[in-house]
Design brief:
The complex is a heterodimer of chains A (391) and B (277).
Chain A (H helix, E strand, L loop, with lengths): L3 E9 L5 E10 L4 E5 L6 H9 L6 E6 L2 E2 L10 E4 L11 H11 L4 H15 L14 H13 L5 E5 L7 H18 L2 E6 L2 H7 L2 E5 L10 E5 L1 H6 L4 H6 L6 E10 L2 E5 L7 E2 L2 H6 L10 E6 L4 E4 L6 E10 L4 E8 L18 E8 L10 E6 L5 E3 L9
Parallel strand pairs in A: 3-8, 3-9, 6-7, 7-8
Antiparallel strand pairs in A: 1-2, 1-4, 4-5, 9-10, 11-12, 11-14, 12-13, 14-20, 15-19, 16-17, 16-19, 17-18
Helix pairs in contact in A: 2-3, 2-4, 3-4
Chain B lengths: L1 H35 L19 H8 L5 H31 L5 H13 L6 H10 L6 H26 L2 H9 L4 H12 L1 H17 L2 H6 L7 H6 L2 E2 L2 E2 L1 H21 L1 H9 L6
Antiparallel strand pairs in B: 1-2
Helix pairs in contact in B: 1-12, 2-12, 3-6, 3-9, 4-6, 6-9, 7-8, 9-12, 9-13
Classes of the chains: A alpha+beta (391), B mainly alpha (277).
Chain lengths: 391, 277
């Protein structure tokens, strides 16, 4: 078991595409680190560079303190689980499990012992003489895991291993993987585009974004899941983590009698955030009279009676998923730079959709007018230019 | 009424298929009959359909005096040698073209295609001059080497298609598992492209076996192949048709046996890449 580190890693492909820029990431012994982000953010490239399957343009990769940047993949002591499993189709399960050990010239008795132990751990005993074509998706996934586990490597590298499974099996395998990792305690780097997977599996989650300039950074934030969810560092992380996504609303901050007032263009009166927000977000003081972006998660809204709460809205649409209900309404969009200075009546009418999570039994009908309260203590504020969180 | 129409349609289809079968199988049957019929009945008018078959032509050509016996072995040597030389060159070329990024890869593939399009007959004189100058004229090696000019381009094209179908992730998985590149090719890639190796070998064998143009200028009496032996029966005094039939049947047999035994690989090779799987 060893730690894994990336120091100032950059990667530009032959066609000029910049995949990684200045990635600094350290994964501790035994840690389960999840790389998450949209397509093209470089998470798979980073994983493949750790395996030695991609040559990095600059920077260093360390495994257990040893620099492995230029070390051949066959000598890095990492084990990889691929998205499509990459099981050797002409070999049986037993041969698939034994292959890596044979390459390391282990004695036959030792190979047989390890294969048997791994098969037992993963429930593969009855499948050892079958070929991959005769296995189900979940069984193939287990064999792919077994091929990695049997080698007792310093580090596991997993490239979206659950993405080819159906939804129910994915949930089941997620739990099994997590339990297995807890049992084995091997340093793991896990790539996924599914943020639910990231949040449920990772000890820490690294959110990556695509880059276009060498001075950019792929890594937006690396923190435990709860920290990412409750304290996103910037707009990108805030918008990526959480489902449904966080609502972003432009507003202007003004000083009010009882804490900050948030003026949303098009609304007749401001939202009163309250004194507690001023205490929780002292940085807001510097934003008096300036526009900010409010980040309001759907669960920060609640239905209240007339005369209470913060906002009157017309319900555009409702959705019911069983355990949760969602209410969609619209807010006016703040004018952009080209429109500031124009007379109010000449600004074109634009509205954005906002989602609120409401208890299913309280969901109103579409078309009705309701009153909502906003939990401003949990609401996030962002710099509209740099995108950084205002603390 | 509907049943009658269906029966008529089925009968017409089968009749058509039988006709097509006769067109393809007919010449083969004719040669077999040619080899076993008495020579005076070959071009008899009216045609003689009932006769006592005789192995005399086969005896004369392959046993006593056995004029074509050594030519049969020569054909086996040349075709077999062509296959053995083909694979060690075509597989690495195909692998490189499939797996490695290199400048001019597309041009190389087009060049191979160009080699396939050029008629071999156009190169007979240059090949003869070349082999004579380096002292290989009349040898098995000369024919085996020159056969590569038609077999390697085809083999590379076909083999590349098979290698393209092997997911790169399998080789990557093997590398990460600790295998060096040569072990990856030996344990992973080669077993998976075995059908491609078989079909490539089959086509290389058949191309070389059937080729008459190159042995015509590159062989001598000692190294002449079976197609040359068959041609020699067209003497100025007239052709010995039964001997031609016997030699032709013997020439047909090895490719036919190979294709019959390994037909599933041929189907896979011919249809490869036609459907995305």
């Amino acid at each position: 078991m060893a730690s894994l580190g990336f120091e100032n890693v950059s990667k530009r492909f032959h066609d000029g595409t910049l995949a990684l820029a200045q990635v600094d990431l350290d994964i501790a012994h035994g840690e389960f680190m999840v790389l998450v982000g949209p397509s093209g953010c470089g998470k798979t490239t980073l994983l493949r560079s750790a395996a030695g399957r991609e040559e990095i343009t600059s920077g260093e990769i360390r495994l257990g303190g040893r620099v492995v940047t230029d070390v051949d993949p066959s000598e890095r002591d990492v084990a990889m689980v691929f998205q499509n499993y990459a099981l050797y189709p002409h070999m049986t399960v037993r041969q698939n499990l034994a292959f890596g050990l044979e390459q390391r010239r282990l004695p036959r008795a030792e190979i047989a012992k390890r294969v048997a132990a791994t098969a037992s751990t993963l429930g593969l005993e009855r499948l050892l003489d079958r070929k991959p074509a005769a296995l189900s998706g979940g069984q193939r996934q287990r064999v792919a895991m077994g091929r990695a586990i049997v080698r007792e490597p310093a580090c596991f590298l997993m490239d979206e291993p659950l993405s080819n499974l159906d939804a129910n099996l994915r949930v089941q395998m997620r739990s099994e993987l997590k339990l297995l990792n807890a049992k084995l305690g091997v340093t793991t780097l896990y790539v996924t585009h599914d943020q639910v997977e990231a949040m449920t599996m990772g000890d820490r989650v690294a959110v990556l974004s695509p880059v276009s300039h060498p001075n950019d950074h792929n890594l937006q934030q690396c923190a435990p899941p709860a920290e990412l969810y409750n304290n996103p560092a910037n707009l990108f992380v805030a918008g990526f983590i959480g489902s449904p996504a966080m609502n972003f609303v432009r507003a202007r901050v003004e000083r009010g009698g009882d804490g900050p007032e948030l003026w949303i263009s098009g609304l007749p009166s401001p939202l009163r955030a309250g004194a507690r927000v001023a205490a929780l977000r002292p940085g807001l003081e510097r934003w008096q009279g300036r526009p900010v972006i409010l980040g309001i998660r759907p669960e920060f809204f609640s239905l209240v009676a007339v005369g209470q709460g913060d906002l009157d809205v017309d319900v555009v649409m409702i959705e019911m998923t069983g355990a949760d209900g969602y209410l969609h309404f619209e807010l006016p969009v703040a004018p952009g730079p080209i429109e500031i200075g124009l007379a109010e009546e000449t600004i074109p009418h634009r509205r954005q959709q906002v989602t609120a999570r409401i208890e299913p039994k309280l969901l109103p009908r579409a078309g009705t007018r309701v009153r909502l309260a906003i939990d401003f203590a949990r609401t996030h504020f962002f710099d509209p230019d740099a995108g950084l969180a205002i603390c | 009424m509907r049943k009658g129409k269906h029966l008529l349609r089925t009968s017409l289809i089968y009749a058509g298929l039988l006709l097509i079968l006769l067109v393809f199988v007919g010449p083969i049957l004719w040669f077999i009959l040619l080899a076993v019929r008495p020579s005076e009945t070959v071009f008899a008018v009216p045609p003689v359909l009932l006769f006592k078959p005789s192995p005399a032509a086969f005896q004369a050509t392959f046993i006593d005096p056995g004029t074509n016996r050594h030519q049969l072995f020569n054909s086996l040597i040349v075709a077999g040698g062509a296959v053995l030389l083909n694979l060690p060159f075509s597989f690495p070329a195909a692998y490189a073209l499939s797996r490695f990024r290199m400048r001019g890869r597309k041009n190389i593939m087009l060049w191979y295609l160009g080699l396939l399009m050029a008629p071999p007959v156009a190169f007979l004189i240059p090949y003869f001059v070349l082999m004579s100058r380096i002292g290989l004229s009349g040898t098995y090696l000369a024919m085996i080497l020159i056969m590569q000019t038609i077999t390697i381009p085809f083999s590379v094209w076909l083999m590349k298609s098979f290698i393209d179908e092997v997911p790169v992730e399998l080789e990557e998985a093997a590398r990460v598992d600790g295998a060096k590149w040569h072990r990856v090719i030996y344990r992973i890639t080669l077993p998976l492209v075995r059908p491609g190796l078989i079909v490539t070998s089959m086509f290389a064998f058949v191309f070389s076996w059937n080729n008459a143009a190159f042995p015509l200028v590159l062989s001598n009496q000692k190294t002449a192949t079976l197609p040359i032996g068959t041609l020699s029966y067209f003497a100025t005094a007239g052709a010995t048709w039964t001997f031609i039939g016997a030699a032709a049947v013997a020439a047909m047999l090895p490719p036919m046996i190979i294709f019959l035994v390994l037909d599933r690989y041929v189907v896979r090779g011919l249809t490869f890449g036609s459907i995305k799987g």
